[in-house]
Amino acid sequence: MWELLTSLLFAVAMVPVMMAIILGAIYGLGAVFNVFSKIGHTDGDGQTAKKSH
């Protein structure tokens, strides 16, 4: 019975930890790909698009 309770507490404790790791990985990968997407663009492209409207 004690082993069942300890494994249950371990599982309950690990759920938010794993969620934080997964969300952090998603956020980190988004930041990395955002940097990659900005490499091919210059700052002038966004300004000219706004002026043409």
Automatic annotation (TrEMBL):
Pfam families cross-referenced by the UniProt entry: AcrZ
Physiological role: AcrA-AcrB-AcrZ-TolC is a drug efflux protein complex with a broad substrate specificity. This protein binds to AcrB and is required for efflux of some but not all substrates, suggesting it may influence the specificity of drug export.
Lineage of origin: Bacteria, Pseudomonadati, Pseudomonadota, Gammaproteobacteria, Enterobacterales
Membership in a protein family: Belongs to the AcrZ family.
GO molecular function: xenobiotic transmembrane transporter activity
Subunit field text: Part of the AcrA-AcrB-AcrZ-TolC efflux pump, interacts directly with AcrB.
Primary location group: membrane
Example GO BP: xenobiotic detoxification by transmembrane export across the plasma membrane
Gene expressing this chain: acrZ
Membrane topology: Single-pass membrane protein
Name by which UniProt lists this protein: Multidrug efflux pump accessory protein AcrZ
Swiss-Prot/TrEMBL keywords: Antibiotic resistance, Cell membrane, Membrane, Transmembrane, Transmembrane helix, Transport
Subcellular location: Cell membrane
Organism domain of life: Bacteria
Cellular component, GO, one term: plasma membrane
